[in-house]
Structure formats: structure tokens, C-alpha cells
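Reopening this ticket.

The earlier resolution said the output was attached, but the attachment link was broken on my side. Pasting everything inline this time so it's all in one place.
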Amino acid sequence: MDWNAELVNSAWWLLKAYLVTLVIFFISLFLLARSTVWGRQFWALTGGYFSPKRSWKPILGLCVILLLTLFAVRMDVLFSMWYNTMYTSLQNLDEATFWFAMWLFAILASIHVIRALIDFYIQQSFIIHWRKWLNEHLLSRWLDNQAYFRTQYLEKGIDNPDQRIQQDVTLFAESSLSLSMGVINAIVSTIAYTLILWGLSGPLALLGIEIPRGMVFMVFAYVLIATVFAIRIGRPLILLNFLNERFNADYRYALVRLREYAESIAFYAGEKVEGALLRSRFAQVIGNAWAIVRRSLQFLGFNFVVSQTAAVFPFIIQAQRFFSKQISLGDLVQTSQAFGRLQENLSFFRTAYDQFASYRATLDRLSGFTSAIEQAHRLPAPAIRADGTRLALENLSLSTPAGQVLLRDLSLEVAPGKPLLIRGPSGSGKTTLLRAIAGLWPYSEGAIVRPAHGTLFLSQKPYIPLGTLRDALYYPDSPGREAIDNPDPKGYRQSRAASDSSALKNLDGLLSAAHALNAPPASSATDETAVKALQDVQLGHLASRLDETADWGRILSLGEQQRLAFGRLLLAKPVAAFLDEATSAMDEGLEDAMYRLVRQQLPEMMLVSVGHRNTLFAHHPAHLVLAGKGSGKWEIHD
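Inline output:
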């Protein structure tokens, strides 16, 4: 074998194969995206990432990965030829050729290692950039138009959106690339090794009939039959993998709720109920896991039988030609390797069926997620318009998703400095009215006039974000807004350096250090403002802990959280504020103090409150009383 000529031929082969494969690859993607359900799902989910209008980099990256994949195929072919040369030299006791083969192996192995490392880096880089775009794309759509909230109004909601954004995106990106490159590798390798096996195989006598190049036809028939049976055995794995993702996510969500509502559950001594719920959900996980094991056992067992049978098949077929000295030992070994690789490549769709089943389940979950977002975006929204600093309702009617009337043709205007109290029986629509004013309630008619900017809503249970007490006090704004808009990776770099040098062996300590590095510094003016706000709402004892990172939603009592929300109100200085039973956890003295504080520091603010206590009457000269009971009636009292 002339290896100098073979290396030149390899370069030409790589160029021609690359151009042909590139054209076929993109044509196939186009046809799959137009003609198959999962192809349309794929393109709808991530087509924007590969759009040349956005950037050419993803397409160029894919082209480079495709080239490296074909390079790997050609390297396998060269190694197959090398085995022929090496074993033939052993059979012929040709020492010079043997040592030449050893040097040749060193060159081929070096090229192979370099190619593999480059391929690994480029593929991982491609996946990371793809994940980054997918995460931002889905996260933006999930947050836009408050879809994360409005999906609860859909007839069929979406389960475990957190998992779909975090875990399924990762699986989708990794599986898409590995499966697509696996298919290309299998097809191109099949062509290459078919040519090799065609040249090495001889006639095959079968039932008295001599078949020229019979080994080639045998391997194709063998794999085709095995693939049909494998697909029939493995088809249920698609549904089982989908259920596996769902049941695990449901179990994880139940565990998160146990931690989130730990205090309430402890007061109720609800451990038995929660334990029963957790065990029942875990039982679903285990039951589905056993179903996957049983089905996988059948699938893998069948694949093992097929693979082991194929291991000795080429030796049996070529043995007669070898012993009659029609072929050399190198030819026999190369035949075995070529047959094995051809069988392996043809079996790709059989052996990768379980991976494809998992991929289909992931794709279905992400497609269902995006479909729910689209439905949420299509839900109607209240007609809200801005007219200076006016706050008014014009013939506003509200109803439940089932069509029951909550409020009919309400018209009123809230004047600066004249707070309005909304009251009425439970279920009459008080909180729903605030949701409509906020633009959250889709089942409404009429018009809502409110300031375009400068509105703040305080709920009965304030939201306490993760982070420092200062972050919670300024939420949804932040004195470190520039750190949020322009994230500084220094914390990441510092934590990576620390982990590389083994400076911190405690991973929790490492993460805490990274978080501390990312925390934006506060100016002295900000400190004074924040401390004064805490003192005004009678939380001055927490002033020294402003920059302490903790789970403040658990540390602070509900009454303290509500006072912290009043601190937000004082710092935000909104044009209009809406308080939904925002003092329900305070005693009457604290409630009176908070409302007096607001009226003193923000006398011209338009204030709307929802509440039941008579003590609120003194702070609200106007009352909107909802009749409830499905009548939609209302009255305004001065």
C-alpha cells in the first residue's frame, strides 16, 4: 500500500465528502422541518438561533463540526488500512514494514488525538452558546406579557416550567448535536466501509446459490431486520421517558413546597399528610423507573444478541478464503473491522433509539412549554391607557373564567390625597379588581386609566427576593441596578481561580465568596436612605444587616415582611399605590402607624387599599363596597 498516495487521496476524499455532505445535510434539515412533526417542533423552537439575519456564527460553527465529524470517519478508515498493513507485516515476518507501521501509527494517533480535542472544544463551545441563546429566548418569552402568571388561566396549564427552562434546554442542545452528527457519521461511514468490504469480500454460497460479494448483502439484511425488531421493542420508551421527566419534576416540586411552607406545615403537624403525598409521587417515579428498566432490558438484550452474533460472523465467512491463502491475515482482520464498523453504523438507528426516544420526550416538553406561552400571550388583557397621572375606572366589568359576573359597569376616579378603601365579602372580587388594574386579569371589559409609570402594588404576603436585605427593601428596583444590567463575571473568575488552586475546599464557602464578590457596593447616601426607611417602619434593629445575604422570607415574620413592604413604598415614592390587605399581619397600632407614615411622607400619592378592618376607615375617606354573590353590584360611600 502506498501510504504517501493514500494521505493525498484522503485529503481529496475529505474535500469531496464535505461538500456533498454539506449540501445533503442542509437539504435534509429543510425537508425534515417542513415534513415531520418533530422537525417543525425543532425549527419553531430554535430556528431563530440559526437565522443568518441574526448571526452567521452558529451556521459556521455547525459547518466546522461537520468537517471534523467527516475527518473522524476518514481517520477510522486510515486506521483500518493501518491494521491491514501491520498484520500483513506480521504474517510475512517483514520487520521493516512492521516498524514503518509503528511510526505511521504514531503519526495517525497524534493527528487523531489533536482532532478529538479540537472537536470536543468546538462542540462544547457550540452547545454552550446554543444553550445561552435558548435560555434567553425561552426566559424572555416566559417573562414577556407576564406569561409566567397568565398561564394559570389556561384550560390546560404547564407543569414544571423551571425544569423545562433549565434541564430540558440543556438536554435538547446536547442531544440535537450528538444525534445529528451521529447520523452523519453513521451514513458516511457506512458508504466508506461498504466500499472497503466490497473489495475484501468474495462470493458467498447460500442454499446452493453463489452470491458475488455476498458478505456485503448479508450485513445489510442482517442489520435491517434487527433494526425493525428493535424499533418495535423500543417504541414505548418515548412515552416512558416523557413520564420519567414529568414524575421526577413533580416529586422535586413537592419537596420544594415542603421547604417553602415548612413553618405552616409544622404548625399543622402535617408531616403525615405531606409524607403520604411525597411517597405517592415518589412511587410514581419508581413505578415508571421499573417500567423503563423492563423495557430497556428487552431492548438492550436484543441489541447485545445482535452485536455479539455479528462479532464472529466475518471470520466464519472469510475463514475458507484465508486458509486457502486467497487473502492475508491483514485482509482478514480488516474484513472483521470493516464488517464490525459497517454493522455498527447501520445499527446506529437501532442502538440510538432509546436516546432518540428521550430526545423526543424533551422536544415535546419544550414544544408544550412554548405552546403554553403562546396561548398565554393570546389571552385578552384589560384595556389600560395612560392619561397623565389620572387613576380612574370607566364602565369596568369583571367576570370569572367560568363567566360569573364579579363587577358590572364600575366607574370611579381616585383623586390625589384622597385614599379609597375597597371592601366587601370574601369572593366578591376585591383582589380581582386590583389584578385588573395591574393588567393581570384577562376577563374584563371597559377601560382602566392609570399612570404610565410610578405605580406600586403591595400584596398581603410580600415577595421577598433572594439576596440581601437591601435587595428586598428596594425591590423591584435596586441601588445596584448597573450590576444587574451589566453582570460582572469577576465573581466567577475569582471562584474558578480559588477552586483551581484548592484555596477553598468547602464548596459552600466557595459559592458564598463568589456571591459576596458579585454584590454591588452601596454608597453612603444609599445607606442613609435605606437605614432611615427601616427606622421609619420600625425595623431599625435590622439596619446593621442590610448587606447580609440570607433567606429573609423565612427570617422575617409576616408582620415584619409587611412593614418591609411599606419601606419599599416610602423609597419608591410612587404616583399611585395599591395595597391588598397589606397590614393584615400587623396589630391595629402598627397598622395605624404605617398608614399615618404614608400619608405624612407621601401626601399627594393616590392610594387604594383592600381590607376588612374597621380601623382602616379613618385613613380612607372614600369606600367602594362590592356586593358579591354574583350580582356585580357596587356602591361608593364617602
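Reporter confirms the inline version is readable. The mean pLDDT is 82. The chain has two domains: 3-378, 405-479+528-637.
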